[in-house]
Design brief:
single chain; OB fold (Dihydrolipoamide Acetyltransferase, E2P); DNA polymerase, domain 1; Alpha-Beta Plaits; five-stranded mixed barrel; five-stranded antiparallel beta sheet
């Protein structure tokens, strides 16, 4: 869905499909550009490679890094071994998200009774002038309330796209959690614990589940870490303070740290 340029840039990460395996090299189709690149055996993996087929198979989808481009010859040199695991995961996630974006456009095309290939191309070209990917532009519709008219998409297409985007792409949330351990030896200890927990769940986005044996799971959902951390602190502080004020004990454990 990337129609911005005819050739990739050096250092760019690309989704490729292995098409041909030779003794000292591998050829792969670069999906975003419809061109072919070559991976020399030395760029397949670190160390000595005895059998290239142990690392790649025809039809396998891989993430490659562009090493060099020879535009006059149309040659593109790629590398597999210079792509880190985190880069590979992120690029594969991008591919999945772009697939989700395409399915949204396909649905809208069917609903409006227009050609899906043509609509995908028209929408993608406009969005990719300003956004890194189509999905990220769609995500901004949900997260930042940016209308598609900002990209030049208007009318019925804008209206229907925004409707389906908001149905299928949910706002991102941060989840942080930890374990609570509450103890009270007061004759009315159960009521004290219940009151402490009630204070804890007053904070928006907070949930507490009983695990058994005086232990509870405390979870906080929020749109960003700063908000989640602040909410967690308020909830835990309320519970710990109430238990201490009423002769009880409270301990909260999260990420190897504890508060009591």
């Amino acid at each position: 869905m990337d129609g911005r340029k005819n050739l990739p840039e050096e250092g760019e990460l690309l989704i490729c499909t292995i098409t041909n395996i030779q003794y000292h090299s591998v050829f792969a189709k670069i999906e975003a550009y419809g061109s072919t690149g070559m991976i020399h055996i030395s760029e397949i993996a670190a160390g000595r490679i005895r059998n290239i087929n142990d690392y790649v198979k025809v039809g396998k989808v891989v993430v490659c890094k562009v090493l060099r481009i020879h535009p006059e010859r149309g040659h593109i040199d790629l590398s597999l071994r210079r792509v880190t695991e985190s880069q590979r995961r992120e690029k594969i996630n991008d591919l999945k998200r772009e697939g989700q974006a395409k399915s949204i456009i396909d649905f809208v095309a069917k609903d409006l009774k227009v050609d899906s290939i043509k609509l995908n191309e028209e929408v993608s070209v406009k969005l990719l002038e300003k956004a890194r990917t189509v999905f990220l532009a769609f995500e901004d519709v949900v997260e930042k309330k940016i209308p598609l008219s900002e990209y030049g998409i208007t009318g019925k297409v804008q209206e229907k796209l925004e409707e389906i985007i908001k149905q299928r792409i949910k706002p991102k949330e941060v989840l942080i959690k930890g374990d609570l351990e509450l103890r009270s030896y007061d004759p009315d200890g159960l009521s004290i614990v219940k009151a402490a927990l009630k204070l804890g769940i007053k904070e928006k986005g907070t949930d507490i589940r009983y695990l058994g044996g005086g232990k509870y799971k405390l979870e906080v959902n929020a749109k960003e870490y700063k908000t989640a951390e602040a909410t967690l602190k308020k909830s835990v502080d309320s519970i710990v303070s109430y238990m201490k004020d009423n002769g009880g004990q409270a301990k909260f454990t999260r990420d190897g740290k504890s508060k009591q």
